[in-house]
Amino acid sequence: MTSEKSPLAGSLDDDDYPAYTMGRAAEMLGTTPAFLRTLGEARLITPLRSSGGHRRYSRYQLRIAARARELVDGGTPVEAACRIIALEDQLEEALRLNEEMTRHRAGS
């Protein structure tokens, strides 16, 4: 066996690589393709398109869809679930930036 890396190795490790078809993504999440289309219409996730025009999802997008399904399964309307997830994402980014700025100030 050679120590050379496969040209696909980077893609397989990339959370943003659109590796999953809509059917496979729905199966993995235990949901329907219609649910994934609804999340796309709400602009929570925007799947990339294959050369044939088929939706393709990344692992990152599947994690977001799984969070949306969790909220919807708990009784939250889809639109509200999408807003909650967007706000959670904004909060996480704000906390990350705050921590980065605090570390920068401490190092000055």
UniProtKB/TrEMBL annotation:
GO terms for molecular function: DNA binding. Residues 19-87 form the HTH merR-type domain. It comes from the Bacteria. Pfam families: MerR_1. GO terms for biological process: regulation of DNA-templated transcription. This is MerR family transcriptional regulator. It comes from Streptomyces subrutilus.
